[in-house]
Amino acid sequence: MTFVLHGIGISPQVAIGKARILRSHCPSIAKQAITEAQIPQEIDRLNAALQTAHDQLNQARSSINLETSSELAGFLDAHILMLTGTTLSATPIETIKNKSVSAEWALKSHCENLIQRFNTMQDPYLRSRKLDVEQVINRVLCILLGEEASHNFESHNSHEIIVANDLTPAD
Fold this sequence. Notes:
Elements: E1 18-22, H1 39-62, H2 70-83, H3 90-99, H4 103-119, H5 124-128, H6 130-144, E2 160-164
Helix pairs in contact: 1-2, 1-3, 1-6, 2-6, 3-4, 4-6
């Protein structure tokens, strides 16, 4: 079977080969209630996912050649910074405690609130930074859901064609 994909290529050539499709967003998350006894476990799951995302981005950051990719390193540094401290964890933890909901739903809810705030910003550059927040939170959500959050390009076959809606600096 043959089909043609249209989009913005990063190479001016025509490519024919096996496609490797990268999914950039996790599936939608429904509100899921948890028992009071499960609250500490959900908080631990959230903290572990945040730490895993932090470790993944640090690993990606350490593999960058700074002489040729200082801009890419800057993007990864911003993503790592979001995972440092309580910026992405404090509100979801409070939501888990107060509403007895899953870590995924608490984090997704927090993401939606942050995006709304970014959308109201006057400065177009700052408003566009909402994409960074979404990318970092989607990475953490994928970890919570047990899905692959980053793409292992080391196992990439050079004859494969990468197809993605969005390719982030961490990818």
